[in-house]
Every structure is written in C-alpha cells, then in structure tokens.
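Hey, quick one: can you model this chain's 3D structure?
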Amino acid sequence: MIRIKEVIVVEGRYDKNTLSQAVDATIFETSGFGIFHNQQLLSLLRRMAQARGLIILTDPDGAGFLIRSYLKGAIDPSLVRHAYVPDVSGKERRKTAPSKEGKLGVEGMRPEVLVEALRRAGATIEGENAPKPANTITKQDLYAAGLSGGPNSAQKRAALCRRLELPERISANALADVLGALMDRDALMALAAEL
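Sure thing. Here's the predicted structure for all 195 residues.
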C-alpha cells in the first residue's frame, strides 16, 4: 500500500472504501451532489487543500464531471490536482444494473488502476516503508487531550470544532486526520488545555 500526502476527494462511501484498500491517505467524500449544499465541507476542503494539496478523483460519468467542475471553481486551482479513471463499461458488483451511462466508477476499479490514476495526477507518494511523521495526531492523542472517550469529551470536541471552524459532526478518525494536517501534537495539546 502506498502513502499519499495530498487529501483525496471522492464522490461516495463505496468509492472511499475501495480507494482506502489501495492507498494510505486522507479521503473525503462529497456525498454525491451533497457537496453543492454543504458549505462546511467545502470550507474544510479549501483548508485541507491549503495545508496538503487536494486530488479530485470522481467517476468518469456526467455526475462525476459536474462535481469535479464545481470543486474546480470553488477551490484555488493551484492547490488541486485531477485524477481520472478510465472509461470502462460494466457495473459494480453490489449493483443490480449498470449506471445510466454504463461505466464503472471509482468503486469498480482495480486497486492498481486507482494507484496509476493518482500517479498520473502527480500525487506525492511516500515510500511504502516510510515511517509516519513523528508528530502525527492519532486517536490516542485525542483521548489524551480529553477529546475522545472521556467525560465531557463530546462537548470538548464540539467546542474544538467550533473554534477551528470544522464540521461538528466530524468523526474521531477524520478529526485526527484533519488536525494532523492543520497542526502538530503540541499545538493540539495547548489548544485542548484552553478548552
């Protein structure tokens, strides 16, 4: 499995599940056209693009290109790279019928095809054996900071999200990834102490 520095944006949870089996990266889903009405997520994607860069990987159909086009206009283009999967006719295993256009989406691609699409997009790939950065924020750090698994941790996490202008319903895993891109462990501990 390869590790990618940039944040990757896909359309849905099945795309995210398939991609996470091929790469170690922070992956966000747009919930399809839900991104058009979710200003918090769009704001978060802008911040992640500034911190680490963004790769957009959508399906090769009309809906995928509409989402890609929207994000392209909403986020600084110098911070965004575009990965494209090939047009392959067929249907995903979980579906009973092919999509409207009869093409496989990200979810239906083999891992090596996804990795190649990311390489062609210019993804920053770290070596497979590269150690994680020493100051990566983990779920254990969230626990140590009182932001997870303790009394009032949900309230503290909500206060932290409000302070950093993050979506309040962000999962603990996603929060650790986002905080890791925005700050180091020492800054997190200092901020948590202020809450």
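One thing worth noting: The chain has a mean pLDDT of 88.
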